[in-house]
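TA notes, week 10

Several of you asked for a full example with nothing omitted. So below is the full record: structure tokens for the whole chain, then the designed sequence directly under it. When grading your own attempts, check the secondary structure regions first.
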């Protein structure tokens, strides 16, 4: 006797699937335009057109351009800090390798992506749009500083790093990464091949130079 094959549940209507994908599509379109044109010059009509929706549809998800920008930052950078904190907390190697791993990971997951242009945007337009600069400070800069501070404190607690003013030491590690972002989005297009920078080699060089001053030396 033939047993009928159970029928599969119907797929979600295409329109419903499309609706669920719209916020992500709008965020992707907004990120590309913000990095390409800046915050001030980007119009919501352009974002909607690039995402293939109307301006009215965009406002259903994001009431203002500022809200859209915040969603971009949270989706691409700020929302990932809990994941990164857990990952670094489970790291088994020494603190020098943890610093190197953290900087490599940040470059691979942010620096090599379109989200790397957000830092340049904020620095360029902070005086004109202090509200987005304040948001970026609270959502990205402060958590990033805290994460690096915890890595350095780990090294001190384990006897690998000497005592140091941690808040300033954090800037020593952040500064090379900001330089890389500025170079990528400002100088790379016009620099001759002989002056191009390999990011991972640059990071390794900076780690070696900076941490040589942080390592605890035997008396």
């Amino acid at each position: 006797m033939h047993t009928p094959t159970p029928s599969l549940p119907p797929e979600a209507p295409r329109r419903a699937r499309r609706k669920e994908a719209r916020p992500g599509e709008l965020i992707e379109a907004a990120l590309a335009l913000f990095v390409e044109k800046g915050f001030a010059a980007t119009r919501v009509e352009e974002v909607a057109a690039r995402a293939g929706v109307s301006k009215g549809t965009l406002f259903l998800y994001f009431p203002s351009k500022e809200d859209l920008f915040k969603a971009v930052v949270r989706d691409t950078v700020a929302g990932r800090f809990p994941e990164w904190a857990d990952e670094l907390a489970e790291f088994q190697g020494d603190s020098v390798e943890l610093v190197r791993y953290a900087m490599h990971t940040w470059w691979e997951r942010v620096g090599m992506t379109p989200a790397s242009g957000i830092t340049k945007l904020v620095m360029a337009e902070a005086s004109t749009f202090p509200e987005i600069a304040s948001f970026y400070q609270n959502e990205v800069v402060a958590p990033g500083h805290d994460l690096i501070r915890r890595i350095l404190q780990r090294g001190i607690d384990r006897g690998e790093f000497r005592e140091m003013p941690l808040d300033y030491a954090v800037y020593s590690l952040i500064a090379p990464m900001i330089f890389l972002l500025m170079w990528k989005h400002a100088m790379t297009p016009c620099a001759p091949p002989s002056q191009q920078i390999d990011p991972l080699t640059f990071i390794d060089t900076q780690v070696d130079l900076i941490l040589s001053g942080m390592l605890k030396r035997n008396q």
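The chain has two domains: 15-74, 77-211. Use that as a sanity check on your answer.
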